[in-house]
Design a protein that fits this description.
Layout (H helix, E strand, L loop, with lengths): L9 E4 L7 H6 L9 E6 L18 E5 L7 H14 L6 E6 L1 H13 L11 E2 L9 E5 L11 E5 L4 E5 L7 E4 L11 H17 L6 H18 L7 H19 L5 H13 L3 H9 L7 H13 L14 H13 L1 H8 L3 H4 L2 H9 L2
Helix pairs in contact: 2-3, 4-5, 4-6, 4-8, 5-6, 7-8, 7-10, 10-13
This protein binds nicotinamide-adenine-dinucleotide and zinc ion (ZN).
The site of nicotinamide-adenine-dinucleotide has 31 residues, from helix 3, strand 7, helix 4 and helix 8.
């Protein structure tokens, strides 16, 4: 059976296209008392950028902390607060930020129309009702959340996406000027999330021509950016934003692999952020992705990136086993990499050996 996949609805694209957001939302503000819920990355608090947000008096704007990755309890709290402040539903939930804020927007919009806690819906196709309109506006590129069918949340028991046809955003604004302020090494780590998605998706059994074509172009752009000496130019910001979009789309038609399976385990115990965690893991995966890891190391060298070491050094043996447990639950990722006989290749011992090197 093939899934009838849902992609992001409309895309406004171009340098400074953000300034047309008022017109885009204007089309939705039909009733006199309609309002928009803006979720904005804490980086922008107090910055001039805030004045460019087309905020009407009845709108709600919340600054979102992103020190920790998105949590189901924060999603639930935002929805409860907004419901207590306004009678109707927002005409759009607008997420302005990185993967974290975009995922908050994608999850929050679903919880206005689905009962209970967002943690009940972690997994594939648990959402029953269409959410309210959602607009995502990336201000850092690589995660691919702007286009993906999932919103990754940490709940009381698991870190897992709410995934399905109701999850992709309705409106995307791709304005490369918005990512100019992202500092290194954060810019590199998030961009490498995209690089790793592309390498993982093309090296596996669920590879498709559609996924591979999108991923190949995304990889070409990333290599152009990070194998040159000036990765931070405006031209490269634009290429990075498009690489992230294509890489995110490519994943819809393939699957991630060993790096994401191991880094989910690593993050569950250490709380390490997704982009950085993936870099730390990928650096040790020559065995699975020899070409990809070689180029990754070259990109780190050219961009003066030094990864932290000893990430698992202070973990107890029990914690290492817990990481392995989480990693082994991601069966579809391992099947993509190794095929149906994956358990013969991916042993606890192999994973332990890799984790202890990080
Ligand atoms: P992020 O959203 O966590 O942001 C990283 C840092 O960059 C934050 O400190 C933020 O304040 C800062 N930042 C954002 N924009 C900035 C700007 N313009 N200038 C300066 N600083 C800026 O980072 P991310 O890597 O984009 O997202 C990671 C999250 O995305 C994780 O929670 C991960 O689980 C999730 N993710 C989701 C998907 C998906 O398909 N939904 C895919 C991959 C990752
Ligand atoms: Zn990722």
């Amino acid at each position: 059976m093939f899934r009838n996949l849902k992609a992001v609805g409309r895309i406004l694209y171009g340098r400074n296209s953000f300034d047309q957001l008022g017109d885009v939302l204007g089309e939705l503000r039909i009733e006199k008392d309609s309002y928009v819920l803006f979720l904005v990355d804490e980086y922008f608090q107090g910055k001039d950028f805030m004045k460019r947000i087309p905020l009407h008096t009845q709108d709600i704007l919340k600054i979102i902390e992103v020190k920790d990755e998105p949590k189901t309890k924060t999603v639930d709290a935002i929805v409860a607060e907004v419901k207590s402040l306004r009678n109707g539903l927002p005409v759009s939930v607008v997420g302005i930020g990185g993967g974290s804020v975009m995922d908050y927007a994608k999850a929050t919009r679903l919880m206005f129309t689905n009962e209970g806690s967002s943690s009940q819906y972690q997994g594939l196709d648990f959402i029953k009702n269409k959410g309210v309109h959602c607009t995502v506006i990336p201000t850092i590129s690589g995660a691919g959340a702007e286009v993906s069918m999932t919103t990754v949340l940490t709940g009381p028991v698991k870190k897992l996406g709410i995934k399905g046809n109701f999850t992709p955003a309705d409106q995307l604004v791709l304005d490369p000027a918005l990512i100019a302020s992202v500092p290194d090494p954060q810019r590199f780590y998030t961009a490498m999330d995209c690089y790793i998605h592309n390498i993982e998706s093309r090296n596996g059994h669920r590879k498709t021509v559609m996924g591979d074509s999108l991923g190949t172009e995304s990889l070409r752009l990333l290599e152009e950016i990070f194998l040159c000496n000036d990765s931070h130019s405006p031209e490269n910001d634009e290429k990075l934003m498009i690489a992230s979009y294509l890489g995110g789309l490519s994943l819809t038609y393939a699957e991630v692999g060993a790096c994401h399976a191991i880094s989910y385990g690593l993050a569950t115990v250490t709380g390490i952020h997704h982009g950085l965690g993936n870099c730390v893991v990928f650096n040790q995966l020559e065995e699975f992705y020899p070409e990809g890891v070689k180029k990754f190391k070259e990109m780190m060298r050219i961009n003066n990136i030094v990864l932290p070491t000893g990430v698992t050094a202070n973990c107890t043996p029990e914690e290492i086993e817990q990481m392995i447990d989480v990693s082994l639950t991601l069966v579809f990722m391992w099947q993509h990499l190794c095929g149906p006989e994956w358990e013969k290749i991916i042993t606890r011992e192999k994973l332990r050996g890799l984790l202890l090197k990080m």
